[in-house]
Design goal:
This protein is of the alpha/beta class and 156 residues long. The chain has one domain: Rossmann fold (3-Layer(aba) Sandwich), CATH 3.40.50. A 5-stranded parallel β-sheet has the order 3-2-1-4-5, with helices on both faces. β1, α1 and β2 form a beta-alpha-beta unit. α1 packs across α2.
């Protein structure tokens, strides 16, 4: 059986610590000949009563997601030399993340950045380190959000 290249999944959001997760995933992927995958989850439109308004909001959210993904994908390509795999989902981030991991057997590791400025590491990490961990089929790496690029690069 041929060994597949590992895929390191990073959840793209607006948090500052997402940068550390991406930096770590890129360093790890480059070190072991793997790939980076990015997932962005769009919240569902709230205006279902007015279908036209809801669809416009959905389209605008999708365009904003694609813009964010493009920025992070270019950064990842600059670090790894490879274009990352991109996933855009609609729904609850925790639910969609677990569904994506189940649907994509190539995903080997989930990499998340931890908020080091508040009392909790963040809602996704809180979910995954409690009941969500038993539902996730891949290991989870949590990268502290207070590490510099140099500190992360020194790991590889």
């Amino acid at each position: 059986m041929a060994k597949k290249d590992p895929v390191f999944l990073v959840v793209v959001d607006d948090s500052e610590e997402m940068h550390q997760a991406l930096q770590f995933a890129c360093g790890r992927a480059k070190a072991v000949g793997g790939k980076v995958a990015l997932m962005y989850c769009v919240a569902p439109a709230e205006f279902e009563y007015w279908a036209g308004v809801g669809e416009l909001m959905r389209q605008e959210a999708r365009e904003a997601a694609e813009e964010k993904m493009t920025i992070h994908a270019e950064y990842a390509k600059g670090l790894t030399g490879e274009i990352p795999v991109l996933f855009v989902r609609e729904g609850d981030t925790s639910d969609e993340l677990l569904v994506l991991i189940d649907e994509e057997p190539s995903i080997s590791l989930l990499v998340l950045g931890a908020d080091t400025q508040s009392e909790t590491a963040g809602p996704l990490i809180s979910f995954l380190t409690s009941r969500g961990a038993s539902l996730c089929r891949v290991p989870i790496t949590i990268v502290p959000g207070n590490l510099s690029d140099e500190q992360l690069d020194a790991l590889f």
